[in-house]
Design brief:
Structural class: mainly alpha
Helix content: 25-40%
Number of domains: 1
Strand content: 5-15%
Length: 111
């Protein structure tokens, strides 16, 4: 992956763009972290429970952007597992910038 590639979710409150801003609001911080790193042969192999929590999380877009920018290779980040993020990276190979088409931040978080 090119060092210049930037994955973006569009305009974001600068306080929420930094990991310490959005991570404090993430629903996963209130749940079992093992659910986000499923064991393919284990009980939580698909990460379905984690993805359900992500769908309700108001900062999952920031989480996904963080995972893509930091090449997180394992776990569930921003509703996507490792394989889905890998496919997204492959789609972006021809582009220098990929904008993820995600919903805007909820008004109460957008400032």
């Amino acid at each position: 992956m090119s060092a210049n590639r930037r994955f973006s979710i569009g305009p974001v409150d600068p306080d929420l763009a930094r990991p310490e801003g959005w991570m404090a609001l993430a629903l996963c911080a209130q749940t079992d972290p093992d659910a986000y790193f499923p064991d393919p042969g284990g009980q939580n192999g698909s990460g379905a429970q984690a993805k359900q929590v992500c769908r309700r999380c108001e900062v999952s877009d920031q989480c996904l952007s963080f995972a893509m920018e930091n090449d997180m290779r394992y776990g569930i980040w921003g509703r996507l597992g490792a394989q889905a993020r890998h496919r997204l990276r492959k789609q972006a190979d021809a582009d220098s910038t990929v904008t993820l088409r995600m919903p805007a931040l909820p008004e109460r978080l957008a400032g």
